[in-house]
Input
Amino acid sequence: MLNLHWRAKGSWSVVGRAFAAALARRTPVAFIDPPEGLPVSGVPVSADAVTINFGDWRLSPTLPGRRVVSYIPWETSRIPWPIRRKLRRLDHLWVPSEWQREVFLRNGISAEKLSVVPLGFDPEAFHPPVTPRQPGPVFRFLFVGKWEERKALPELLEAFCSEFRADEPVELVLHAHNPFLADFDQEERLRQELRKLGARDARVRCRGEVALADLVRAYREADAFVLPTRSEGWGLPLLEAMACGLPCIATNYSGLTAFAHAGNALLVETDGVIRVRDPFFFHPWLIWGTWARPNVAHLRRLMRQVVEQREESTALGQAAAREVAAKWTWDHAAEVALARVAELK
Output
């Protein structure tokens, strides 16, 4: 059996819930302080069981269990010293990708403490439509992710507005809500970024935070997915888009390369790396290292390619859907997680 704890906001809460359900299908799970709305299994918490913490890793030393595993996503090349010192004291760490494992090793985290356990997606929700979508009069690019510096939205807007003329039947839809920023106004932020570009482009539209069914519909109504991110510990929206059969454009860097490669996605070249700067998510008094600078010119060419080469792009999306369904579901992730638990002494 396992003990399981998580307390998180946004996408990480969704991740914890989905992972918990997959684990509970395979072994008894005792939930520590379960979030509201989660069905409680009735299994009591055991001090002899392994505890997996999907929540705040700083709580791990306070949690019961024979061993406590802290699942930690990470997106930058450097772990600031105060955080690194605390991570070294933790019992065991899971990371979602081999890229992140290498980052942690370079930052002095012991290999004996580290295991790679991938994330996954729900194939019941995210899959290609039974009836293939027919091309509409307007080609729609879709972006899904928080509006933050790491996602490189200014570069995406620059690429879109520069590449496609105002009279071309192409649009960009942003699902870029940020629940962590108080009074965040996605529409106003978009207007600000377009003003910087000297653009007044009505073909770029925002959608706010949506329920799962609406998110699935957004993938189904899109013609291509684009994520010119600077860095990802994993990249769940990209995986979901691939599972839905969309041709996907993403930066050739970081954790998403665990499942996205030249055979199933269009990968944006990088212009090296730049220093991490985002005072809200990454404290400015600490040194976080670097992340990628996506090449805007190459991003433009790939966006043009998927518009003009519809047949080839559709085939690429279909190949991606088949591959990720065979390798990257939550059930697959749970099997890997249980194998790692069995290795713990």
Summary: The chain is about 35% helix and 20% strand. The chain has two domains: 2-120+329-343, 139-327. The mean pLDDT is 92.
